[in-house]
Amino acid sequence: MKKIFFFLTIICISCTQRKKADLIVVNATVYTVDDAFAKAEAFAVKDGKFVAVGTSDEIKKQYTAPKSIDAQGKTIVPGLIDAHCHFYGLGLQQQKVDVTGTKSYDEVLQKTVDFYRKKKPAFVTGRGWDQNDWEDKSFPTNEKLNELFPEIPVALTRIDGHALLVNNAALALAGIDENTNVQGGEIIKKDGIITGVLIDNAMEYVYNIIPKPNLKASAQALKDAEEICFKLGLTTVDDAGLDRKIIELIDSLQQAGELKIRIYAMVTADEKNLDYYLDKGIVKTGRLNVRSFKVYGDGALGSRGAALREPYRDKPNHYGALVNTVGFLQQTAKRIAASDFQMNTHAIGDSANHIMLQTYADVLKDKKNRRWRIEHAQIVSPEDFDAFRTIIPSVQPTHATSDMYWAKDRVGAKRMKGAYAYKALLQQYGKVALGTDFPVEKVNPMLTFYAAVARKDLDDYPSGGFQPENALTREETLRGMTTWAAYANFEENEKGSIEVGKFADFIILNQDIMQVNINKVPKINIAQTFVNGERVK
């Protein structure tokens, strides 16, 4: 009896000495993505944060919890961060006709007709067409669209968000005719007749007359986007361009527990938003961070709106265009530099990159570690790479593998040497923030990882990789999707790695992303997604 009592006492003492956690995960292959890129087997979570990371034996001896997961050897990495996307836009797209992946203009028209027959909206909107994927790679014209929709206005945004196809009913409502002039954009004409394709700032005429979603529709869009992202392992998204109304809706939904994804909100840098947030200051909660402005430098390469220093190879005498004046860009940069906010500028063409890098250098002369970003940095002149030593490159690897079929036609072989040059950009700043630009590209971050490392598309083309000298290693890529992206958001001390004191955001994969054959990475499934130690998928 004494021996039994003794052993029971020892057991009780050991139980009381074990600390209480909310969740324990053991028997895993954990890539912590800490500074040493160390691996672990297990961790404990309490109050939404990691409280211990180590071996399975260590965690089981030190902690007890009401919930535990035996990962059975599966791979765990930090919750993934998409450093540049359009989260709200993805949600809204679920309420519109989706014409992504269409292989012809006729397919676009058929999908639009099918959508209208089903939904019967008063104004048909959609997104996703890309003439570069069609046999006829020229911009479409709206004659057929007018025949199918003689009275109902239709507006279909190109995949990159920098061109819009509209019918005559929409043109009439917007007040666009042959005499309409546009600064920082273009109304495409053929033989003096408007074709229905609008580029960059010209699109605003139509966007201004499209009925705005009500509060219920906006909330549903955010929830729909969250569901898609959680299924694919994204726990933080950087939404590149939000208005105050939607930011405040996000905050209210998060505070009510109806939206659990973390959002780094880049505020759309119009005068109204600039005035409000520069006066208000940074807004920071556990799930929302409002401390940056999204500014547009130029348009997109696919629609020939990117601003180039020399003409387009496939459109002589055409240089693209800045969508904002140099004066506005410089004045905006000065205003933001005088605050604690970050400036994140869309710059695709070499001219836009050159102008923005110079502008940044001028206003940040005496300011350290402001972490200002260039979003996309697609075409960079050789002499401008050095400027990225103090500016964060925020890039999207799947753009390279989507654009490689036609980008050379736009800019020629010489400029392609500085195109989609992610390794060269990394070597300058020491970090890259990786994203997708969804819904321009697919949401799936496994495709981001694959494109960054393999530099190939899903058809395994090209066999040696597209400009393989600019491929990233697996470690660099995972860092770019976690801790480096967190750094770009001023959040490296709270997320991006599996370390004590950080938010318990993590995902469980069905294969080891760091070891599996790279061609199998696109097929990796996310088994479970956790935010704050709570399973959300």
Kindly list the characteristics that best describe this protein.
nine-stranded mixed β-sheet; single chain; 18 helices; 3 domains; six-stranded mixed β-sheet; TIM Barrel; Urease, subunit C, domain 1; about 525 residues; alpha/beta
CA-based shape: globular
Strand content: 15-25%
CATH class of the largest domain: Alpha Beta
On the 0 to 100 scale, the average pLDDT is 96
Uncertain ranges: 5-14
Q: What class do helices, strands and sheet pairing give?
A: alpha/beta
Q: What is the CATH superfamily label of the largest domain?
A: Metal-dependent hydrolases
Number of helices: 18
Give a verbal description of the structure.
- This protein has 537 residues and is α/β, with parallel strands linked by helices.
- It has three domains: 2-73, Urease, subunit C, domain 1; 81-86 and 213-535, TIM Barrel; 96-207, Diaminopimelate Epimerase, Chain A, domain 1 (Roll), CATH 3.10.310.70.
- Helix content is 33%, strand content 23%.
- It contains 18 helices and 27 strands.
- The strands form five sheets. Strands 10, 17, 18, 19, 20, 21, 22, 23 and 24 form a nine-stranded mixed beta sheet that branches.
- The relative contact order is 0.13.
- Residues 5-14 have low confidence and may be disordered.
Give a short synopsis of this structure:
The protein is an alpha/beta fold. The chain contains 18 helices and 27 strands.
